[in-house]
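quick one: zinc ion bound model?
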Amino acid sequence: MLDFTAQEAAPETKYLRDYKIPDFTIETVDLNFDLHDNVTHVTSRMHIKRQGEKDAPLVLDGKDIKLISVILNNANAEYEVDDETLTIHNVPDEFDLMIVNDIDPASNTALEGLYVSNGMFCTQCEAQGFRRITYFIDRPDVMSKYRVRIEANNAKYPILLSNGNEIERGDAADGRHFVVWDDPFPKPSYLFALVGGRLGMVEDSFTTKSGMDVVLRIFAEEQDLDKCPHAMDSLIKSMKWDEDVYGLEYDLEIFNIVAVSHFNMGAMENKSLNIFNTKCVLAKAETATDTDFSFVEAVVAHEYFHNWTGNRVTCRDWFQLSLKEGLTVFRDHEFSSDMGSRAVCRINDVRTLRQHQFAEDSSPMAHPVRPEEYMEINNFYTMTVYEKGAEVIRMMHRILGPEKYRKAMDLYFERHDGQAVTCEDFVKAMEDGSGIDLSQFRLWYSQAGTPEVDVKSSFNNGKYTLTFSQKIPDTRGQTNKKPMHIPIELGLIDRYGNELLPNETILLDLKKSEQEFTFEGLEHKPIPSILRGFSAPIKLNTDLTRDEQIFLIGHDSDSFNRWEAAQEISTDIILKLVDDLDNGRELDLDYAFIDAIRLVLTDKSLDKAFIGEMLALPSEGVLGQKMDTINVDGIHEARKLVVAGLATALKDEMLAVYHECNTGESYEFTPEAVGRRRLKNMVLGYLMEIADTEIYQICKNQFYNANNMTDEISAFTFLVNSNSPDRDKAITNFYDKWHHDQLVLDKWFSAQAMSSREDVLDQIEKLNEHKDFDLKTPNRVRSLISVFCGLNQVRFHDKSGRGYEFLGKNIKALDPLNPQIAAGLAKQLTRWKSFDENRQNMMKKTLNDILAQDGLSKNVHEIVSKSLD
Ligand code: B3K
Ligand code: ZN
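yep, here:
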């Protein structure tokens, strides 16, 4: 733990502009791990070469480790050591260095470096965890070949894994055994991994297109092995997809995945030994929802795809994080679209982007896709680096077109395989591989904030003009930004619903602050479909009338924009209602909108999942982003009234759809079956807003008789949020049925944390004290605290301030245990300026109170101090 306090100097800020190549590189490293329950002895033998300044000393990173000895070329070395470094002066230009040190994985609650989860040793080294294992030059531009020997008690830790190929195993004294692993690919230390434990395993294989047989293994606790086949299936699909779409093959004869229950994030792409949060790998119908199944498929693919975009070509420094993350998210989004429904995937990705990344972009933590400074790099694994980063790649893909994009990707790998490179190197490969100039486009990497684009249209004598203007809002440390290169995909539709340019995709290159595009020779004024497929991550304001938007719901050939038109209308309706409620006016739903939704709901030709998305109203969080000062209670009330209004108007249709989709079929994870469940549960959610005994009965039946978790948890969530007399019994029933399964128990916590009932704060406080609540388990913390504070806007921002107190108390308790997770929670308080004065004051008080805590981590300090700036 760091030993500064709020009164002492703030943690050091690192700047991109200070990048310097390291003075030394480590060519090979030979590690020996001697695992014991209360201590791990580590011996590291490195071959080191100078590559920079002549007289520079060797400075190695290290944290919370007990140094035993340092031997340089067979002689004791003279060194200096402090909390963060080990320095050796007067070293030759090439030498061997042996370091012996001890660590204590069992007491490592930060879950960085080597730690113990449910009796299993495992590692997490990205970004800077390796320095908690041994002294090293712990930065991604130092790439070394690793050989790893692990020794442990045979009975307790029969499985011993590391990166690369197993080259030796044998018995050792005192009931111990050892395994030696060798990874032929030079890699940065953040990709190192080790696992030791008693684990079961499922195995399969894949033959690459060049004919190499790869053994695929997923390791998990014995009782979870029946939940591994879906991940295995997803892995095989990912391997095939990367060959088909990018021409990229796997490069070792073994690929391992290990499921771990204590994990700070989703998963980690360590070379040939991916380590996964159980939540992102385990799935079976009875315990995982359709969303979980899709999530597992996407995360397995994401980590696998990193083998090329991240591992073979890695980042020069952590400012370049989006080089691997944005690109790999784009790749996994495309993979998911190819596996399921493209339209539904795009809608969900954009929904996530708006809810979380747009919010981040308008907060004091706003930063460019390639940040220029940080105090704690772990705070920058953000929605901006990942999701906006993926949108930046998507835009390049769209500007280049699929063929040139593929050519440019081939060039990128040809140039940079085995290197640690920058985002600039990537863009240069895109330019050189395609011949397209991306100089203005580069601003997407350096300018933070969500561009706002206004469009006005006019029609005169057959000439249709669209006038665009763009504005990039100021963000922390960045003002007066330059206009960006924004690709706007456009369609023009005539009054009969025909595309006016059916065989062409119109891609407008918006590059100026204000720019006009004209289309001549049109008989009638067309209806524009602007920003098809959400071709750029911007906020768009058009002058479309309500009638035109309704027309688009029924006629746009671009599914995304059909959905978008419905979102826009419902947003307008809800926001107007917030105002009406303030002024004592009553709900007045637009009948044309109800009819448009009725048509969608009953359209047998439409994909059911898509209908489900068309019915999903914008969340309270997204609605709040549309207001200068978020009217927390008004939004909640208005949204509920609109749900009830639609449910009342469309009750018969919704009931019919419910029964049509409720087929009683056995579970299958196919797009059609997922679509039926999505739509069924969507209409049930509406109907529960106007529930009578018949509807309660339907919900109760679904809860007690479901043959899959999607239906069970949906019905449970609706019951928990309702006033049904069966509510309490359902809560007990679900707990009794599932308390042995940690991932399902997380859902039990989350369903209660999501409830908008007025008593939810009392419930949350009780759940915080529940015997199954544990601050040391990140999944449990997220299931209760992140869900409540991040997704339950109306109750977290309760005017009493109890929500803030609850969060503040938990952050303070968690910070000494796990600063990364504590900092993630602190992000919920950053947007205080968007709320009314009363709430602002309470949020600031909570932030100040956290800042005053002695020994506050660098992680939380950075978030809190930047928020208060
Ligand atoms: N690269 C890891 C994330 C590491 C987070 C470190 N705080 C997982 C991923 O993005 O694939
Ligand atoms: Zn990633």
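Confidence is low (pLDDT under 50) at residues 1-7.
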